[in-house]
Amino acid sequence: PPPSLNRVKEKIDEYTLITSSAWKNVINASIGGIGFLLSPRAMKAISNISKHNDRILELTLNGNPKTTIICCYSPHNEQPYERVEFFYHELSTIMDNIPAHNFLLLGGDFNAQLGPNDAQFTTAASTNRNGTMIMEFMMQYNLVATNTLFHHRKSRLWTHQRPFGQKVQIDFILARQKWINSIKNCRSY
User: Fold this and answer.
1) CB 170 within 8 A of CB 113
2) For site-directed labelling of 2, which of 16, 26, 36, 122 has its Cα 20 to 30 A away?
3) In this structure, what is the dihedral angle of CA atoms 7, 147, 135, 102, given to the nearest 10 degrees?
4) Each residue of 45-93: pLDDT tens digit?
5) First-to-last C-alpha distance (Å) of the chain
6) How far apart are CA 78 and CA 11, in angstroms?
7) Residue 184 confidence (pLDDT)
8) For residues 166 and 31, what is the distance between their CA atoms, to the nearest angstrom?
9) What is the DSSP string of the chain?
């Protein structure tokens, strides 16, 4: 990985954790931020890691085809519209530079809820503002939210539990529509 990437890198068993914008807590564990947990095989396949900002980290793996994985963290739905709009502008700039033949996955906390009119399998009753923005982004780049495509019980759909116990699906794994037949399952653990 390029030395200019500001990251925390540590070993967890045989896996390597690479994070951006994370910090160490009192027991020296990395918390916060965005990142990737990579197997030894994935570590050998890295061709590039790019930190675009504190909310977007890009990883490219060698292969046929090359695989590009973007980890991101959108501002909350309650944040000013301009902050969320800027996040999607930055993400669009990155997307415009990824070769069309790369297998592409975007995963992260989009702080978006997709209602039943926008997603087949969802926990939300309706789409929120961030949900509308992610839908527009998905249409622009011909992406699908893979974790809304497969029928699973509700406990395999929600990705975040709010302080008062409500369980919501705000994290998504997006993929290019052209690769949809390569995706056999996607669920929350």
Assistant:
1) yes
2) 26
3) 60
4) 999 999 998 899 999 999 999 999 999 999 988 999 999 999 999 999 9
5) 29
6) 36
7) 93
8) 23
9) --TT---EEEEETTEEEEEES-EE-TTS-EESSEEEEE-HHHHHHEEEEEEEETTEEEEEE-SSS-EEEEEEEPPPTTS-HHHHHHHHHHHHHHHTTS-TTSEEEEEEE------TTT-SS-S-SS--HHHHHHHHHHHHHTEEEGGGSS---GGGT--EE-TTS-EE--EEEEEEGGGGGG-------
Strand partners, 35: 19
* Whether 114 contacts 134, CB under 8 Å: yes
Tokens of 106: 């975007």
Give the alpha-carbon dihedral of 91, 95, 98, 103, to 10 degrees.
100
Mean pLDDT value of segment 36-43: 92
